[in-house]
Amino acid sequence: MIALAALSVVLAAALAARSGLRLRGPHAGPRRILVPFTGGTLDPTVLDAAIRLAHAENATLVPAYLLLVPLRYAEDSPLREEVAVALPLLEAVEHAALRAGVPVDARVEKGRTPTHALERLWDEEHFDRILAPAPNGRGGGFTAKDVSWILAHAPSETIVLKPDPNGAQQAA
Amino acid sequence: MAAGVGKTYRMLLEGRQAQEEGKDVVIGYLEPHDRPETTALAAGLEVVPRLRAQHGALELGEMDLDAVIRRAPELALIDELAHTNAPGMRNEKRWQDIDEVLDAGIDVISTVNVQHLESLNDAIFELTEVRVRETFPDGILDEADEVVLVDLSPEELQARLRAGKVYPKERAGVALDNFFRADKLGALRELALREVAEDVEARRARRPLEPLSQHAVTERVLALVEPQPKSQRILRRAWRSAQRFGTDMDALWVRPSGRSPTEEEATQLAALRRLAVILGIHFLEEEGDDLVATVRRVAEQRGSTYVFVGTPDESRRREIFGGSLLSRMVRELPGIDIRVIANRADRDRLAKE
Question: Three-state DSSP class for B272?
Fold first, then answer.
């Protein structure tokens, strides 16, 4: 019986390794709130709301810039020019959160589309909550289709935040 | 770049300067093109008489290769490297003559237009619709100790042409309508600039500088990371500096001996590795209990000149009794700049207090 149990564990681990799945237990650390954004923009009202929520829940804010890899490049190509746009924005978001006393664990993730990058990220890491900015009507962020996809596929509780319709400034 | 930009003039200037510095200089071959400025600059420099070669009814003046070698100066000025010699000469091409002069231990300064470079022949044809017959192998350029670009804007060259400084005035109109059109000259200029830039780059790669000079011009960034959220910031800031230096960058995690990362640390490390891939950073993982000694070893191996670290999380007590980590790094990494990446939000916090 003991031998059988041991065999089951080994088999499960081997299957997980072969299929690329990760065996992940319950997350033991502080709560993590993911705020994904893309297209060189994050609405300040969305950022404010995310910081307030992280503060209230004693959670770590994970702002994640989703980089798009054009089809003409291999997926693992370094994306220096795109990153040069993303990093200052990510830095500004991180700065705003830290200034408000909220711990930050920023990420840059890449994919062929924003949802592809997002899926990669939540396949790798655990998030207790996801705050997705709704389409802002000015282009550059998630589309309505992206948001529908996020709501249908997100592995955690998801909130879609509608940006301030009068706000036109970027967070950075 | 093209005829008329001042190559021969520049060659003569270099020759005169070498003569003033006490070098034995002769003109092996000069094509003055009846340009008075060029003829004036050549005055005072010894000229090896030309060899007269009969080609049908034409009498051609070629470089007297044997006479130049017999004269054995320290430096020979030999114009028009891509020139084709008259039939009956020992070598078909002047660059072959120059090879012999160099083999005789004589330094040579020569001139050539970019369109004569063999590898550019097709590109030149596409740009100018002129098929250049006199070409020379690219290897000649590679073997030169120095390549100097004589650059002139298309407008200036056209002005020289109109003023009769390149060809007699009556030929200027035809030339301006054909080879010397601004668009063609612009394309030739771009080709010449690119060729010289590539040559400089190839020389840097081929002939390493003295170790001391190498250190002065080459930077390499090393960012020390830990499986912690703040390391994302260290990596990003270090990368931005590396971009400004135009240099490569490594990231290093020194893993304590015999200890596996926790699940949280493994997640952080995976995220750091993903960011390193996106930014094109080499991620290194080394085992060691002495952080500074490991950094020193890696910095030596990678040729690092800058080390980026986060603000150390040391207690005051440990700093007093164990010594500050940063002080040790400054002491034990001589010649390496150390930059501490701060949390910018702390600046705002300080301002509020």
Answer: helix
Identify which has the larger pLDDT, B297 or B143: B297
Judged by a CB distance cut-off of 8 A, whether residue B213 touches chain A is no
- Residue B10 belongs to what H/E stretch? helix B7-20
Least CB-CB distance to B278: which of A83, A95, A104?
A83
Which chain A residue lies closest to B274 (C-alpha atoms)? A109
Q: What is the largest CA-CA distance in chain A?
A: 66
pLDDT, tens digit, for every residue of B216-272?
557 899 999 999 999 999 999 999 889 888 888 999 999 998 888 898 899 999 999
B-chain residues near A80 (CB < 8 A): 243, 279-280
Answer whether A146's CB lies under 8 Å from A115's CB: yes
pLDDT of residue A28: 55
Residue A111 in tokens: 């994919």
What are the pLDDT digits (tens) for A95-137? 899 889 999 999 999 998 999 999 999 999 999 999 999 987 7
Q: How many angstroms separate the most distant Cα atoms in chain B?
A: 99
Q: Residue A137 contacts by C-beta under 8 Å, 6 or more apart in sequence? A: A165
Say how far apart CA B337 and CA B301 lie, in whole Å: 16
Between chain A and chain B, the number of residue pairs with CB atoms below 8 A apart is 61
Is the pLDDT confidence value at A19 over 50?
no
| Residue in A24, A83, A98 nearest the CB of B345 | A98
DSSP string, B178-241: TTT-HHHHHHHHHHHHHHHHHHHHHHHHHSPPPHHHHHHH---EEEE--SSTHHHHHHHHHHHH
CA dist list (Å): A147 to A61, A119, A134, A158, B94: 20, 13, 7, 10, 71
Mean pLDDT of chain B: 81
Is residue A141 predicted with pLDDT exceeding 90?
A: no
* Cβ neighbours of A125 in B, within 8 Å: 267, 270-271
pTM (2 d.p.):
0.52
CB contact under 8 A, A108 and B264: no
The Cβ of residue B150 has, within 10 Å, a number of other Cβ atoms equal to 16
Q: Does B351 touch chain A (CB under 8 A)?
A: no
Of the candidates B9, B18, B68, the residue with the CA atom closest to the CA atom of residue B39: B9
Tell me how crowded residue B264 is: count the other CB atoms within 10 A of its CB: 14
Chain B partners of A106 at a C-beta cutoff of 8 Å? 229, 232-233
Does A172 touch chain B if contact means CB atoms closer than 8 Å?
no
**Predicted local confidence at residue B347, as pLDDT:** 64
